[in-house]
Design brief:
Beta-Lactamase, Heat Shock Protein 90, five-stranded antiparallel beta sheet, 16 strands
């Protein structure tokens, strides 16, 4: 008895406790059959009936299990030990189903947990047909008491485990929402924001797959996915109007789908094969529809719950803000790029109009004026002057072409192009320039990287010439490990780095550096300005 009691009380698995109780009771009382009836919340009927001693085939043949009427109901109404030499002779006996094995001797005791009946232990058919005696009853009562302690402990342990799992889920949810919130404030690259949302969303909902659809005109575009999703589905399009996701977007409320056959656009088209359930949430930013987030099949195998729906609401709000912010930044970046390109076009137009075209018009008038002159000296002087003006216009056009795309950069590489650029800018603008260009053994870098490095130096020197009024400029370009370092410093008057400085071309420099995967720092004081960029090295394939 002591050994059986220790075994029961030491076990924290409820099913194992119930199994151990029934087997121990059978062994110690000599009962052929044992059962445990577990009461429902009303304490009036049985919600579960666990048996031992009856084989599975007989179990299936019997059919429905007892619900707590007849003799079993006596123990529910009067929770005291009950011994019967022949249960079939009890006045409240209902008899047994046709396939039920014969049972006569009977012993039942209640299982009481903290003063409340939790269920009843039933034993029947003692060995050799003998009736259960007082000793058997005492054993059953003691086992029921120990079982009550073990069951209470197991239920407490299950509750602790459930709370621990809930806390773990809460932590995962907090991590996911925090990561997305960080994306709102710290990440502006739309592809990275989308990837973060689907990965964190899948972890938050513990789902097999997550797909993010963005609104593009009248269509949805599959913009990102995570989990068991076909990568080839990304970029696919389908009309918003004819889809369940479109209905969710218009309703502004999430929807649980317990059978994906209800989806008007199949999960297969989204890249999710063999999906069974779905949870779809709308994304809106400042009242405008952004897209939808669709999760498929909880890993547990159960349908998505109301709790999942509440979770996805918070996720969708953070995700929509992140996507909307990133899209706004992307549009602003494109607008700035277009504005910068337009400014460059206007500058080239002014250069061609004010210099080249005006000069050519002057030459035309000069030559027209001497066209009919018969004085050779006047004609010769006009021709000499015209030749000089043509040389001047050629130099101007050559300078403009060099600014657009220097031939030295393509033919000779970054170092010669920067040396030529620095020397020319210093000569034209009247400042002293020192340059230190060290690119190792003369190896060529990738065309994109060389162009980025050149344009950073060019823009920085243009700023010096237009705004700084500097006397000395220092240009340093070199390799540091696996990075290309570009640095331009001057001793001119500085500017407010954080204030709007459209004329300084900083947005263009930042765009170039960001596209190259590098970093840019700009420091400016009354003593001068320092522009420094670090770009990951990509060697040209030649």
């Amino acid at each position: 008895m002591l050994g059986a009691g220790r075994a029961l009380v030491a076990n924290l698995d409820l099913e194992a406790v119930l199994d151990g109780l029934l087997e121990t009771a059978r062994e110690m009382t000599g009962a052929r059959y044992a059962a445990l009836g577990i009461l429902d919340d009303t304490r009036a009927t049985l919600e579960r009936f666990v048996t031992r001693g009856i084989d599975p085939d007989t179990h299936r043949a019997i059919g429905d299990l007892p619900s707590g009427r007849g003799v079993l109901g006596v123990l529910i109404a009067e929770p005291h030990a009950l011994r019967l030499d022949d249960v079939t002779e009890h006045p409240l006996s209902y008899g047994f189903p046709p396939q039920h094995p014969p049972m006569h001797t009977f012993l039942g005791v209640p299982v009481v947990i903290r003063g409340e009946v939790w269920g009843n232990l039933y034993l029947t058919e003692k060995t050799a047909g003998e009736p259960f005696d007082a000793g058997d009853e005492q054993i059953a009562v003691i086992l029921a008491e120990w079982a009550a302690i073990a069951i209470a402990n197991a239920r407490l342990y299950e509750g602790v485990q459930q709370r621990r799992q809930e806390l773990e889920r809460a932590v995962r949810r907090l991590e996911a929402t925090t990561a997305i919130a960080r994306a709102v404030s710290g990440e502006t690259e739309l592809p990275r924001v989308l990837e973060l949302i689907v990965k964190r969303g899948r972890a938050l909902l513990d789902s097999r797959a997550v797909v993010l659809l963005l609104v593009d005109g009248d269509d949805f575009v599959i913009a990102a996915n995570a989990g068991e999703v076909q990568a080839s589905a990304r970029g696919g399009r389908f009309p918003i109007r004819d889809s369940t996701s479109g209905d969710v977007l218009r309703s502004t409320h999430p929807r649980r789908i317990d059978d994906t056959a209800q989806l008007r656009v199949s999960a297969d088209r989204l890249g999710v094969a063999d999906a069974h359930t779905a949870l779809i949430a709308p994304l809106s930013f400042r009242g405008l529809p952004v897209g939808v987030l669709a999760a498929f099949d909880a890993v547990s195998g159960a349908p998505f719950t109301a709790e999942d729906e509440r979770l996805v609401l918070g996720l969708a709000a953070s995700a929509a803000t992140a996507v909307g912010t990133a899209q706004t930044v992307e549009r602003d970046r494109l607008r700035r790029s277009l504005e910068a390109a337009e400014q460059e076009r206007r500058r080239w137009a002014r250069e061609l109009h004010d210099e080249t075209l005006q000069g050519l018009a002057g030459l035309k008038m000069r030559l027209a004026g001497v066209l009919h002159s018969e004085e050779l000296g006047v004609v010769a002087a006009a021709v000499r002057e015209t030749v000089e003006q043509i040389d001047h216009q050629i130099d101007g056009l050559r300078t403009l072409i060099t600014e657009l795309r220097p031939a030295a950069l393509d033919e000779l590489g970054l170092a010669p192009a920067i040396e030529t650029l620095t020397a020319r800018m210093a000569e034209v603008n009247g400042f002293e320039a020192k340059r230190e260009v060290a690119l190792g053994d003369g190896r060529r870098l990738s065309a994109e990287l060389e162009t980025t490095g050149y344009r950073i130096v060019q823009e920085a020197l243009t700023n010096v010439a237009k705004h700084a009024g500097a006397k000395h400029v220092n240009v340093v370009v070199g390799l540091a490990g696996d990075e290309l370092v570009v640095e331009v410093t001057d001793d001119g008057r500085g500017f407010g780095v954080e204030s709007p400085t459209e004329g300084f071309g900083l947005s263009g420099m930042r765009e170039r550096v960001a596209l190259a995967g590098g970093t840019l720092s700009v420091d400016s004081t009354d003593a001068g300005t320092r522009v420094a960029a670090r770009l990951p090295v990509v060697v040209a394939e030649r």
